[in-house]
Amino acid sequence: MNKKKMIRLTALVGVATAAGVVAEANQAHAATTTTTETTNQTTNASVESTQAAVDAAQSTFDTAQTSVDSAQANVTSASNNVTSASAALSSAIANKEAATSENIASATSAVSSQAVVVASASQAVSEQEGVVSAAASVQASAQAEATSASASLSSSSANVASATSALSAAEAALTSDQSTAANNLSAAESAASSASAAVSSDQAAVDNAQAAVASAQAIVDAVAEVQSSDVINMSVAYITALKNYLANPSSANAAALQEVAKGADYVKELQQKFKSDASLDVVVDPSDPTVQEALSVYAVNLINHLRNQYGLTTAFGASANANVAAIDFVKKYYDDEDWNIFGTTGSDGKGHNKNGLDAYADQLNTSIAEDAGSGLTTWVNGKATMATTTLHNLLYAVYSDIATMLFDDGGTNNWSHAQSIFEDGTILGTDGFNNVYLGVAFDKYGYAHYELYNATEGNHLGNNAYSLDVQTAAQALLTNAQASLASAKASLQRMTTNLMVAKAAVVAAQNQLAALENSSANDLVAVTKARTQLASAETSYQTALATYKQKEEALKKAGDNLAAAQASLEAAQATLATAKAKLAELEETVANLTNADQLLAAAQAAYEQAVANLTTATGNLGAAQVDLAKAESQLALAEDTAEQAKVRAAIAAQVDQQLNGSTANDRQSAGQDATSLKTNGRALTATVATASAAKQKQGANQGRLPQTGNDDQEASTMALVGLGMLGMATGLYGYKKRKLTK
Questions:
Q1: Are 371 and 351 in contact (CB under 8 A)?
Q2: Other beta carbons less than 10 A from residue 209's beta carbon
Q3: Which of 60, 196, 258, 571 has its CA 20 to 30 A from that of 734?
């Protein structure tokens, strides 16, 4: 049921004037002592009695609530039954309307026709069951034959294994000594072959080392002279014009510099001064460390000579680490990315890989600048062709590139190559080039890259520095080559000795094998016999294997036929089940049409009974709700009475406490307290009245409070109750009854 809130407000007693109540209390003190005690006992008993009444009323309320819930469930169930019965009645009425003689005859005819269908389907099932039985018999026979063939195959396989084992034993007996001798011979021949290969390899190494010595000797003979003669000397006018331009790159200064430099003609003149020596025409690898050292030292010496002429005291350096970094950078950002810096004509190239430069600078945590030149490429008729990679070509490429950077660098480059050579502490306006090391590398297109790194302790690019004394570097190259040649010759000598020993071992093994070949005639007969038996066993095995495969195939075919027959049987059974279900449905239709009157009567009766049951359940629910309302009212009244009893008991206890412990002075003080409360207490400001009015209110409340004595005693007691009220901190105006919920 819905929650309800019940509130009761009960007026307790009027409060007399302070002076009158105190006077009455003094006069009646002796007489009221016994009365208050009796009142306390009575009020306490009343509290217990009313609480018991509340408990009983609560129990009655709970029982009534349960009855209402049960009745409500019965109503719901009865209502559902009425709905169901109504639907059944409607169906019966429709069936009655359809129960004409024509419909009955038609339905009966349909039943007969469907019975024929069922009989035909049943016959099909019986026939297919026979097919399945025959297929199962064939499959069982095939299984038996396959099992037998499998056993025969296993036996043949065992015979082959036995014959193989016998042959292995006979061959082992035959070849025991021969095998050892043959193995020895094979090992000796293998060792001899390895020794021969080692000799050939070491001979090739000696040849290569001798060629390297010849190449190094050529470098020693020629590089020093080339380095001393291949210098580029700048005129004072050029240096002055270049300094003016770098200090102020105006159009006028650029034109003056171009005029002094004389452009491409002067470059050709310088290029013609390069010393060509036949000793430099040796083929070398541009990425070989020794060649890299020679090239970078050569380039750095050319640049430092120019910087000295320019008046700079800081020099560029060369190191193996800078060269390795240059080779790595060019491979990663030019070769691997197919980045052709100049293109095929010189005007269709991609230019510098600036993103690659930024990325590599971040990787090394340093500053990098790059100059590039035609390198190994010679421009012929506007097309680039690769020149032969010789030491002469490499040195000339470096010389020509640096000369070109100085004297033919106008146009869009704005003399940036010359600027990169002659700046100090910066390159192209970028700070952080205080310790420059040069690395030289050639890309796969033949173009030369000159990478300028700022070397620091952190990036180690200055480590493994080269001596800039060309003669010393060239001599070191020759010394290393000669040491390699000596090592190769020593290794060749060792391998030649090993080959001689290996050849002697081969001869000994051949002699041992020949001696054993005449001592194994009996073993050879046994081997021949074992081989014949093995051949016979293998023939039997192959025959058994063919039979086994044939029987397995027959078994598979029989299994497939059985599965197909079973599938057909299941289909026939499904058809029969469908036909039977259809027949049952048609028979039910005939029965419903034939018995339409009886079915309608039964449905009508069921519907009427459901309606009657609903009416009864509804009446029971109404009665239960009436009982619940009564129980709720009684519970509220009992709780109200119990609350009043508790209030009276509290007042009586308060009065008894004040009267039993007071003296004349105490009562006078109580009067003064009452007078004080008259103006300060919240209860007095709301309920104070004259003494006569209090008397009248007392009379009006006699019907509400329990009678514990005669009229005079009750009047005296109620006056004292008024005094008791003066001692309470707050007034009691009413109470809120608890919620009744279910």
A1: no
A2: 20
A3: 60
Start-end of H helices in 376-415: 391-407
Instruction: Find out whether 709 and 3 touch, Cβ atoms under 8 Å.
Output: no
Residue appearing with tokens 């003149």: 269
For residue 612, how far is the Cα from the chain centroid? 67
Q: Which amino acid is at 612?
A: A
Identity at 541, one-letter amino acid code: Y
Give the alpha-carbon dihedral of 425, 430, 431, 432, to 10 degrees: -90
Burial status of residue 229 (CB atoms within 10 A of its CB: 0-12, 13-18, 19 or more): exposed
Q: In sequence order, which ranges of 408-469 are alpha helices (DSSP H)?
A: 416-422
Residues for the chain: how many in total? Answer: 742
3-state secondary structure of 433: strand
3-state class (DSSP) for residue 688: strand
Virtual CA dihedral for 691, 696, 702, 708, nearest 10 degrees? 40
Cβ atoms 426, 454 nearer than 8 A: no
Structure tokens at 512: 């041992």
Distance CA 381, CA 568 (A): 87
Mean pLDDT across the stretch 420-437? 90
This prediction's pTM: 0.41
Locate 98 and state its tokens. Answer: 């359809």
Tracing tokens 């069922």 back to the chain, one arrives at 118
User: Which of 294, 284, 370 lies closest to 325, judged by CA?
Assistant: 370
Give the tokens for residue 623: 């009665």
Instruction: Give the C-alpha distances (Å, rounded to integers) separating 330 from 155, 302, 333.
Output: 72, 22, 6
Distance, in Å, from the CA atom of 603 to the CA atom of 588, rounded to the nearest integer, reads 17
* pLDDT, tens only, 468-492: 876 666 666 667 767 777 877 777 6
Query: Which residues, at least 6 apart from 320, have a Cβ–Cβ distance to it below 8 Å?
Result: 289, 292, 293, 463, 464, 465, 466
Query: Quick check: helix, strand or coil at residue 60?
Result: helix
